[in-house]
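Problem: given the chain below (235 residues), write out its structure.
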Amino acid sequence: MNIVDIKGNHCVCVCGVCVCVCVCVCRQLATSGVDFSAANFSLTFNDGELSRSFSVNVSEDSLPELDEYFFAVITRVYLNQSSLSSVDTSVLPDLAPGNQSVAMVIIAENDDARGVVEFTQLSYTVDEPSAQFLLLRRSQGLFGNISVSWRTITGSADSADFSPVSGVLVIPEDVATMPLPLAIVDDSQPEFAEQFSVQLVGVSGGGNLGDAVLASVTIRDSDDPNGAFGKGWSI
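Solution.
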C-alpha cells in the first residue's frame, strides 16, 4: 500500500473487498489546521489490487519554518467481513515486518527560514575615519548561523583608503541586523571626496541574498584639500 502526502492527526480505515487496513497519521512537529488540513479517507482495495494512495493538502502560509514531520503508521490489517465467506481465512493479512508499516513525511523548510540578507540602504556618505557604518538586514527567518561573503570594488578610493578589502561575516541565529566590519583608514593626506562600492557576494548556511546587494560609499573631503589659511603674526 502506498501512502502519499498523508497529513493530520487521526485514524483512517481502508476497507477493500478482501482486506481492511487501518492507518494512524500521528502528528509530531507539524500542526493540524496550521501546516495541513486534516481529513478522513476511505479507500477500497479490489481483489488483486496492490496499492492505493491518498493525499492531504499542505497549507500555504508566509511563515518561515524549518523541516517539520509526522508519521503515518499502519496499525491494523484485517479481512473485510463481506469477504470472509469467499476467501481462505487460514492465511490472514498482517502488518509488514520492521519499520515498513511506519512512514515519516517531512515538510521541507520554507519561506526563507534561514533569512534573506541585504544592505539596509544603497548609498552611504562618511567621514575619515569611520567604522562599521554599513548595516546588513536579515529578514524572513532567523534560524541558524549564516555566513555572508562580501568584497569591495575600487573607484576613486582604493585599498589604501579602506580596510579590509573583502571578508566573510557570520550572522548568528536570531540576529536581524549586523554591521559589516569595514573601516575607512585615517591618514593625514589631503583628499577630495572619493567613492568606492561594497558588494555582497553570497550566503552559506541556507540563507539567500536579497535585492540590495551593492552599496556605494562616498568619503567626504578630508585633511583640508584646498589648504588651511591663517594670519601670521610676528613681534
